[in-house]
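Field: COMPLEX_INPUT
Field: COMPONENT_COUNT = two
Field: RESIDUE_TOTAL = 470
Field: MODE = joint
Values follow.
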Amino acid sequence: MCSLCGILGGRGHWTESASNPGAFVSRTNSMTVRRERQERTKLANRVLAHYGLKLADWPPSNYILRDAKGRSVLVSNLSELWSVAESVLNETCDPLDESLLSSLSAQGAKDR
Amino acid sequence: MTDYASLIPISVVTGFLGSGKTTLLRQLLSAPSLRETAVLVNEFGEIGLDHHLLQHVSESILLVENGCLCCAVRGDLSESLRELYSQRERQEVPYFKRVVIETSGLADPVPIAFTVLTDAVLQHHFRLGNIIATIDAVIGSGGLVDHPESVKQAAVADRLVLTKTDLCGEGEVEPLVEELRQLNSSAPIIQSDADRLDAEFILAEDMYHPDGKAREAALWRQAVDGQSTEAELADHGHGHGGIYSFCLQFDQPLDWTAFGIWMSMLLHRHGENVLRLKGMLNVRGQTSPVLINGVQHIVHPPEHLDHWPDADQRSRIIFIVCGLSREKIENSLAVFNLLANSPAMEGVLGHAVNLENC
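Field: COMPLEX_OUTPUT
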């Protein structure tokens, strides 16, 4: 629940449809959950590429974050991801950072 | 997993010293529909609260390692709530279906929210209800200027209750109301000396209340619609240490995955300065709106409305921030959302519309 401390208990992360049937009634079957995780991994990788990091799905409930040196760390949700990414990089990951946004915009333009 | 809406709601009554928290609480608890309420207080004030389920809790705070102040765990509170729940189950105290915590005047309500939402035991029995902040209308905006604690309490609140308005002269309350609207445009402002105080609305109705959910969403919407003429014209909160509120609207549906990546990243880096966020989102692939609600680094489980209130299905997010640029936040979310729309993502899912058919 906390995006800074990454402290979680039994309840799933707020971004996961399967953990929030109150909001995503029709997105809770296993096929949907798997595909949602794939989408999350792929999209997160587009952001992480700016930092030279790569995320891989580690079903059913974790992800692995790797850096260019081959170091890998297990993360369980998006909030933990940014905390771990900053530790690995020893720098901040800021979605308001102009250089990140330019890099993402360039990726988007390239796709088109 | 227990349905979040069915958990016992914990409301927080906060407000600066002498702002009338206990008096308000006494008024609220006299409502027959709120009789089954347990009350935890940080300090026994001068005004006694005669209630059958009143317990005292001290205010010790444990800082989470590497955590920020909003992520402080109220260890004492956690203990008290566990014990209270246990007593209810053992029928050692009268049955209660909600809890109200009255904080001390200087307390930050956010660690309470953090404790309720993250404690490994509590989160299975309790959920966070409304945060209600009392504001002394006689002291007026001077109280907000002099006490940063008051500003924080008002900024994160779901309901703002003006107390002692009967002691104010004509025209004295309106400037304070205006100031509070600029500070926190999403919270209804209620005068406590109103002839009939709607206790249910103040204490019980929130985005998880089965009957109040739609009304709550309508209030957010109303706040957004009034925003352009009020808070956007504010001096970006310069009078309150940089705290101000603004609303973002998006014509196109948002991609939930992109939104989750963006928001988790934003709150990780800037959560301390995102005092509050509330949103009604048009999520691609969803036929009904998704409601989101956050306090600093903490995000409640999202909820959905059964249907859109009207034909206007734009996403709206109200932010109450401290020193962050609206333009930068808006631009950043737009870039992340566009990334999800790129052809490169189609190979993965063909977008969320297809999710519904899986």
